[in-house]
Amino acid sequence: MPMPQVPFDDRGLAYGDGIFETVLLRDGQPVLWDYHRARLEQGCQRLNIPLPSAQQLVQTWQSPPTSALEVLKLILTRGSGGRGYALPEHVEPRLISRRMPFAANAERWQGGVCVRLCHLRLGHQPLLAGIKHLNRLENVLARQEWQDSRIAEGLLADSSGKMVEATSMNLFWSSNGVLWTPSVDHCGVAGTLRAALLAQGVIREGTLSIDDLPHSERLWVGNSVQGVWPVSELLDAHDNVLATWPMHNAPDPLQGEAHRLLGYREFPASESK
């Protein structure tokens, strides 16, 4: 199905004036939908964009599924109009969506991944922190820093040297047997899987500096589509090895809880790429 055409004067295209969600569909039904809707609502409140009705949102996944697993991307812009940055007198938001078949990468669940620290540092803007707004230029620039396919993700710190997230995933670590994730009060995205794990008391919010990162007991990256990848190797911004972690045969406490929430079995061959 072709994507709908976005008008030249759409404010999401011109200014990044909008928000988006990327939702895992299992057998045609959204996973962690309450958390996605809550973040969508928060984003609308922050940007002062009217929230689509529940019926409008449900319609985006009402067609029959094309595969057991799909990814639904929702993009909501303020619509068209206004003079320059000034808002239009009557806001008519534009909601577009697309569904694509998806296969989770179970090899990364089991074998772990290599990640690297990025040169780029995230700037602080509390008004935009947490929400998934359309202006992701920091993430785009960070992702340009490596081309090596062996590197699965890049880790981002803020301007004060505190770890925040990965380019498209949240960051988790273990210290003294406790599972942690960085705060996203000043910058970064509050992932929906992260929110569910916090709500269930599986993880806590904490602070982790760049210097302390290599000394974590264990390290993970994860989101509500890919699940949780344990980190086996950490590189610095020049691709020098900073730390390695052995992969364990024992059940992974964070991955187990996260994949239960997402409906993933431990290492299903049928869901690997």
UniProtKB/TrEMBL annotation:
Cofactor: pyridoxal 5'-phosphate
Keyword tags: Folate biosynthesis, Lyase, Pyridoxal phosphate
Gene3D superfamilies named among the record's database cross-references: 3.30.470.10, D-amino Acid Aminotransferase, subunit A, domain 2 (3.20.10.10)
Metabolic or biological pathway: Cofactor biosynthesis; tetrahydrofolate biosynthesis; 4-aminobenzoate from chorismate: step 2/2
EC number: 4.1.3.38
Molecular function terms from GO: lyase activity
InterPro entries cross-referenced by the UniProt entry: Aminodeoxychorismate_lyase_IV, Aminotrans_IV, Aminotransferase-like, BCAT-like_C, BCAT-like_N, Class-IV_PLP-Dep_Aminotrnsfr
Alphabetized Pfam families for the sequence: Aminotran_4 (PF01063)
UniProt keyword Chloroplast, yes or no: no
KW Chaperone (keyword) present: no
Catalytic activity: 4-amino-4-deoxychorismate = 4-aminobenzoate + pyruvate + H(+)
Quaternary structure note: Homodimer.
Family to which this protein belongs: Belongs to the class-IV pyridoxal-phosphate-dependent aminotransferase family.
Name listed for the protein in its UniProt record: Aminodeoxychorismate lyase
UniProt organism field: Vreelandella lutescens
